């Protein structure tokens, strides 16, 4: 199972420019989390801080007992091996074919024999649907294939934490949908803790167990997906609806006068804030044939314990997604009065805000999703 990442009071500035301050959150072990935020709010800086590549001036990031911010470099280097990183462009070496790119971390960081390296590389290529393309150079394949190759490379050292920086950037909507499915399938197969940075609302709505958002140098929220997806916080509502009305402007945050004009409806062409028409769509299920995500049951128990602290809309969305208790069976069996009481009505309505706990035959995406992937 993946490892929890505990972030406490993290603050980062470059010179006099503060990027974010006092960020506190926990990425629950083995669950998938998404970090949203307008451009330039420091999402990539946050990812790099988690692995100790960027050093915040205050706070801590604890991974397997190591503080990635304040520990000795040798310990941070060791702990970094727990992470798999997928960067925006795949970050592949242009002169190496895909096989050698994916084999690179194994050759660099392990003493494995070439036959073992070949087995692992081919298995990871299979997971991301790239078997047959291993001889190609990065320049000879599409952007989406490069991303998947980057993901395969992120997986070769069996990471327990996977960080993906904008896995959708530059992809068309169909490839983005396949990528969403790939990320869920990956979580089902390896049960790693995952954090995905994205602007993409489809990924945000369908992939994560937990969601957070950075804005105005602060973490606006972080918690179960239902909290952010039902939030009426203006910045969250604006982001999720893609509206021009709200606190997010083109370059910087809007000034108070613009916000006041919008509030009284006089801002030209801003469009309505469409918060109320948002619907909670079901979270993706792993592709048929893959194991269930172990995170689902763990998360259900975890979230049950926090229901009382959540806003009402989030609470009812979560309650609706919980498996409904079976009606009690009658004590009088064998055809006596009431013998039918308690039989489960297959037509009974179910509340389907989040069906992730009930395995169903999800549509298969044969072309781009893993064909199978038992981990060794
Ligand atoms: N090494 C650095 N030195 C100075 N400033 C930096 C450095 N790295 C990032 N920044 C600044 O930090 C801010 C946040 O950048 P970051 O790339 O994390 O934003 P982001 O939220 O990931 O944006 P986008 O969604 O557009 O990718 C930017 O203003 C950027 O210029």
UniProtKB/TrEMBL annotation:
GO molecular function, one term: ATP binding
Positions of the UniProt region annotated as Disordered: 246-376
Residue intervals of the ABC transporter domain: 5-241
Compositional bias segments (type: Basic and acidic residues): 251-264
Signal peptide per UniProt: none
Bias kind Polar residues: ranges: 366-376
Keywords: ATP-binding, Nucleotide-binding, Transport
InterPro entries in the cross-refs: AAA+_ATPase (IPR003593), ABC_transporter-like_ATP-bd (IPR003439), ABC_transporter-like_CS (IPR017871), P-loop_NTPase (IPR027417)
Pfam families: ABC_tran
Keyword ATP-binding: yes
PANTHER family: INTERMEMBRANE PHOSPHOLIPID TRANSPORT SYSTEM ATP-BINDING PROTEIN MLAF, PROTEIN TRIGALACTOSYLDIACYLGLYCEROL 3, CHLOROPLASTIC
Protein name: ATP-binding cassette domain-containing protein
